[in-house]
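Posted in: Protein Modeling Q&A

I'm a second-year student putting together a small comparison for a lab meeting, and my supervisor asked me to include a predicted structure for Lipoprotein. I've never done this before, so apologies if this is the wrong subforum. The sequence is pasted below exactly as I got it from our records. If anyone can share the C-alpha cell output, I'd also love a short note on what stands out.
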Amino acid sequence: MRINKIVLLLLTAVLFIQCDTVNSVFGGSSKSSSRSKTSTSRTKTSTSGSRAHYNIQHRDDFLSVSDREKESILKESKATEDQYSLLVFTKNFKGEKIVVTSQEKKLFSGYLISNIKTGYADKLTIDNTKDVWVYDNLTKKEIVIDSKEAKKHKFIYLQKDNSNKESPFILIYSNTLRPLD
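Accepted answer (user: helix_wrangler)
Welcome! Here is the predicted structure, written out as C-alpha cells:
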C-alpha cells in the first residue's frame, strides 16, 4: 500500500514538471529552449463606445495538427494563398450572434456555440490584406483584426472571455493550426 502511494506521488510530480504546471502555479519561468515565446499585449481602443479593450497574443507553442491535415483544412477552406488567413472561433461562444465584416462587406453572421470538449465553434476564411471587424451582439463589443498582423499569420484564433465585461475577446495570432476536433 505504501509503495503504491510513493509511485503515485512520483508520477504526479513528473506530470507536473512535464506540463509546466509547477511554473505557472508558483510563478517560475520555463527554461525550455524548444518552446516558442508567447507575447501578450493589451490594446485600448477609445474611438467608439462599442469597442472594447482586448487581449492580443502571438503564440505558436501549442499542439498542432499534421502538415497533411493542415493542408487539407486550408484547401477545404480555400485559404491556401498568402492573402488569406483562417479565423477560428474557439472557446466560450454560447449561442450569441456574431457578425464578421470587412470594408462594409458582411463575411459571416450567425450564432456560434463552442464544443465543450474541443473548444472549437467554427472557422472562416478572411482576406488578410483588409481589416476585419468581429461584433458580438450580446455584449455589444467588437474587435478589429488588423491587416498588418493578419498578413504575418495564417491562423487567427478568437475566443470569448465571458468573465471580463470590459474585454470580452482574446485574439491569438499564430502560424500553428490546433486540432479542431
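A couple of things worth pointing out for your meeting: Residues 21-52 have pLDDT under 50 and may be disordered. Residues 155 and 174 are 5 Å apart (CA to CA).
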